[in-house]
Amino acid sequence: MSKKNQTLGEFIIENQSSFKYTSGELSRLINSIRLAAKVVNHEVNKAGLVDIIGAVGETNVQGEDQQKLDVYANNKFIQTMTKRNIVCGIASEEEDDFISINSQDENHQNKYVVLIDPLDGSSNIDVNVSVGTIFSVFRRVTPVGTPVKIEDFLQKGNQQVAAGYVVYGTSTMLVYTTGDGVNGFTLNPAIGTFYLSHPDMQFPENGQIYSVNEGNYIHFPQGIKNYIKYCQQEEGDRPYTSRYIGSLVSDFHRNMIKGGIYLYPKSSTNSEGKLRLLYECNPMAFLAEQANGKASDGFTRILDIQPTELHQRVPFICGSKNMVEKAEEFMRNA
Ligand code: P6P
User: Fold this and answer.
1) Which of 46, 175, 188, 235 is the most buried (most CB within 10 A)?
2) What is the DSSP secondary structure assignment for residue 204, as one 8-state letter?
3) What pTM value is reported for the model?
């Protein structure tokens, strides 16, 4: 049983034996993410003070302006995981293709691949709104010791061995799962230590918060329009409250604590939605299900979707189980 105020390091050691692949490699991987999170947190917290805000002048594979902090966070996470010789491959929202690590060293036995959104919600950076890092971990499916291949990354989300996020908000938290529940750790910046502040996080089965960009309403499928009107009706515990930060990690985190639903549907302007399956929806869906929540594209469980390409998008509905099921009902009946 996890104990509040345990440090992340103590928690990892205590729970390592409960993880079926107890090689210690995954523990070292979580520790490397912890280190990178602290380094990125330091830069995020002083972004307003130094000239680190502002686009680098390039655009990433998503066609989005690359903010300097995007680039910084991407480099830090990749460097930290590479230097510690833990993973054999990395895919990132900021990288056009996946990165094969130690492929020259035929002796390496690294068996994990990591997919990462190094700084999600980065358009919020220069308006001082919280942003986050999202990560997803799989065991490779190609032979250990050989260069990774695309199929190591295009695995269904139900094969993830770990997933989590860092939210750089009023406090910095690392929230993750290795398939045995979800635990949240808060950083004490004075000493650079993460402490277990939110053991065994669970979505309430019901909630009264819905998170969607209603500016896209006219472009939504009819089922989503009908669900939004349902949320706004005067009946029972409704109307719900609309809360949308524009940062998936922050909206997800609040909804997991208070109860709620996040929706990024497809639309006439985003035919597959906006969010990326591999390094946004899959890790958040794994966390949601581990926290008694639910995640689908409106019809299919996110974790059962077979990926076909690294940066593919999917419609995303995630949060309190009963709220997601009600939204799915509206999608079916539209
Ligand atoms: P929109 C950030 O770019 C992001 O990927 C999520 O973090 C966020 O929920 C969503 O996109 C915001 O998108 O189109 O509503 O601004």
Assistant:
1) 175
2) -
3) 0.94
